[in-house]
Structures are given as structure tokens and as C-alpha cells.
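Researcher: Here's the sequence for the chain we discussed earlier.
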Amino acid sequence: MAIDIEHCEAHIAHTDNNYLPFLHRFYKSHRATLFRFLEVVPLQSSTHNQHLEMAIRFIRHHRTSRSTWLDVPTAETNEQATASPSEALDLSWIPAKWLKLVTGQASSQRSVPPKQLHRQQFELCVFSHILLELQSGDLYIAGSAEYGDYYSQLVTWEEYHAQIDEYGQQVNLGYGTDSCKNGPYLLKALLIEKFRG
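Model: Thanks. This is the structure I predict for it:
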């Protein structure tokens, strides 16, 4: 009976053009490898947003749990629990398509903080967002060439100001510290001239 209910829920989700319920079947055989990846690879956020890193710590902490549903740690529960390494989880980053699977709540109930998370669906959600954030550069692997911190590869503002005049001369744009303010206007004028002529 439980299998039939799962199939019905998967079908309902599929009719909403949501493929996410079907990922679990493929995830089971790769779960151990993905958790090993988290143990070996030093993932860090390139932004001030630490929500995904907190979620990663949460799923790693509950890796051996067999419970279907896990309690969501809040600031209040952290004050009561002295030995728990859990930290309050902000789940605002979870997209609407994942929200129902992860929390059991409809996206219209987003203002109500969930009390529990579906462990396997939350793991899937976190791993899929690790992939997306590595691709976008919001998450990086320290020391990696392809998935490294691209912010560290940018020049500092001091280097920029010291080299902008020379760069402008090399590329023949007439850019200098004074003309940088007019850069967009110069570019627009050059484009208009090219298209007219």
C-alpha cells in the first residue's frame, strides 16, 4: 500500500512538470560516493551567504540517520541542547519545486517555518544545489583550477587604478582614470559609428 501511495505522489508531482521525485531512484546507488566527496573536497562559499554550507554540515551530521524525517534545528532548540553540533538552519534558499518534497509544505506556506525535513529529499536538494553553485561560482573548491574561487583571480582595486591608463593605451580605447567615467558613453558612440558607417 505504501508503495502505491509513493507512486501516486510521484505521478502527481510529474504532472506538475516536476522531475525531482524521480531522482531518488538514481541517488541511492551514489549516496556513499557523494558523501565521500563532501569529506574529501573542501567546499567554501564565495559569497557571504552561508546557508548551503550550513545545510552541508547538517546532512553530514545526519548521514547515518535512518529516520525518514529529521527535526529542523532552530535557535531555540540550540539553546536547549548543549551537546548538539546542530545550528539553526535557514531554508529560504530552497526553491518551490523542492520545498514540498523536503518539508511536506506547499510553497504557499513558506512563511511558516517547517518543523521537519525529509532526510533523503533534503540530501538530494543539497547535492543538486552544490552542483549548481559550483557551476555558478557561488561555491568553490579551494585549490581547484576549474572550480576555484574566481574572486581570488580578480585584480585588486589598487592594481586596477595603477594599470588602467596603460591598458587603455594598449587596447586603443582612450581609457584613463578620467575617461573611465565616460566609458559606457564612448562605447555607445563607437557602436553607433560602426553601425552607421
